[in-house]
Specification:
By secondary structure, this protein is mostly helical. The chain has a single domain, classed as ABC transporter involved in vitamin B12 uptake, BtuC, CATH 1.10.3470. Helix content is 76%, strand content 3%. A two-stranded antiparallel ribbon has the order 1-2. The relative contact order is 0.19.
Length: 308
């Protein structure tokens, strides 16, 4: 049978597809949240934080541990996850940030892989993969929601998308109108000149590292609920956020948001298509390659017209 015919026959009905699209919007909101955090840190310090997913995964597992073995209140445990993300990321930035400041962009990026490997190793040591399937995080908001036609939408789905929108709007306003945001934008243009103007560079960088970690913690909790509480899975979900940020050329927050929503929806929408399910992990790469190819082609054509 021709592959296209087989694909057409395996397509689910619109009714079967709708629940996955709701999940895709929720995931897209979290990917946008993560992508914005990565862009702000990159624009401020020049570091592309590839440990973002591992920080969120570690924090989510800490929350699970506190809830199930220490009897801590759920919301306090989730707060511990968020604070862990902020503290561990800030600590990394303060220890290695100055050393990385003058290094090559590739060195800055790959340096965070070391933190990723350390956190992955620690998670495997503290929470072995045996019995991992029994671990899960279920937010109280999972039990509340509403119906849209015949589709059940949980409050968690709404919160995930809403937080993505809220953080995107808040970050845009923060960078444009606040003194700290203005300093971050100045550092993105030229760190040395910004320092000579009397801007407390180290304090600004610390704020960016801490904010990125807080966002990582929030993302870890939401993804642990929406996807699964698995260290490896959560660690590498950062790829979707990274793809959205790359589509935006690591500069535009709103393009990152739109790209993240599209990636989330397409990724979830492919899930019920049996002939494509095994390839759904390629979604971020494919979409990023198409978008970057189109943008580069448009830029080449523009330059060609100018020269002509």
């Amino acid at each position: 049978m021709h592959p296209l015919i087989h694909l057409a026959l395996s397509l689910p009905s619109w009714q079967d597809e709708q629940p996955f699209l709701v999940t895709g919007l929720a995931l897209g909101g979290v990917y946008a949240l993560s992508g914005v955090g990565m862009i702000v840190l990159f624009r401020t310090t020049g570091v592309l934080n590839l440990s973002f997913g591992a920080v969120g995964a570690f924090g989510a597992l800490i929350s699970w541990q506190l809830i199930n073995h220490s009897g801590m209140n759920q919301w306090l445990a989730y707060l511990a996850c968020v604070l862990f993300g902020g503290v561990i990321t800030l600590a990394y930035g303060m220890v290695f940030g100055r050393a990385l400041a003058g290094r090559d962009p590739l060195v800055k990026t790959t340096a965070t892989l070391g933190l990723t490997l350390i956190l992955l190793g620690a998670m495997d040591l503290l929470w072995t993969s045996n019995g991992g399937a029994s671990r899960s995080i279920s937010l109280p908001t999972d039990n509340h929601g509403f119906m849209v036609g015949q589709i059940q939408v949980t409050t968690t789905d709404v919160i995930a998308l809403a937080i993505g929108v809220a953080i995107t709007v808040a970050t845009t306003l923060f960078l444009r109108y606040s003194r700290l945001g203005t300093a971050m934008r100045a550092m993105a243009n030229d760190r040395e000149i910004t320092a000579t103007l009397g801007v407390p560079v180290r304090r600004v960088e610390a704020s960016a590292w801490f904010g990125c970690g807080i966002v990582a913690g929030i993302s870890g909790i939401l993804l642990a609920d929406l996807v699964a509480l698995d260290a490896t899975t959560l660690t590498f979900l950062v790829i979707s956020s990274l793809a959205a940020a790359l589509i935006a050329r690591l500069s535009s927050i709103w393009i990152t948001f739109i790209a993240a929503i599209i990636i989330g929806v397409v990724d979830a929408g492919v899930t019920p298509i049996t002939s494509l399910t095994n390839y759904r992990d390629m979604t971020p790469f494919v979409l990023a390659a198409i978008a970057l190819g189109f943008l580069n082609r448009k830029r080449v054509l523009s330059l060609a017209r100018q020269e002509f």
